[in-house]
Amino acid sequence: MTTYIRRTAIEVEPCLRTSDIKNEKMDVINTIVQNSSLNGMPKWYKATAILLFSTIVTLLATMLVLLFIYGPEMNIKFGY
Predict the structure, then answer these.
(1) What is the pTM of this model?
(2) What gap in Å lies between CA 49 and CA 55, rounded to an integer?
(3) How many CA atoms does the CB half-sphere of 54 hold within 13 Å?
(4) Per-residue H/E/C for the chain
(5) Domain spans of the chain?
(6) Are 60 and 54 within 8 A, CB to CB?
């Protein structure tokens, strides 16, 4: 007596690879550039503007984290 086991294929969505995630991020950046005033500017100008924006956002995020950590110990006075 021979027993056969029937295998069924289950379709599973493939996992996102690192290259897929990187492409999605680049699509977002390209869409932002196309819908902004940077559209049509030279590549070096776009890179400089994005670098400046990223630097400002990173600086502000760092300052916020430092304020959360050391805020209760700080003595901040407004005015004269």
Answers:
(1) 0.55
(2) 10
(3) 7
(4) CCCCCCCCCCCCCCCCCHHHHHHHHHHHHHHHHHCCCCCCCCHHHHHHHHHHHHHHHHHHHHHHHHHHHHHHHCCCCCCC
(5) 31-73
(6) no
State the 10-residue block means of pLDDT for the chain, 80 residues long: 57 57 71 80 86 94 92 80
State the pLDDT at residue 34.
80
pLDDT at residue 59, as a whole number: 97
Residue 77 to residues 68, 74, 80, Cα–Cα distance (Å): 17, 10, 8
For residues 41 and 30, give the distance between their C-alpha atoms in angstroms, rounded to a whole number: 13
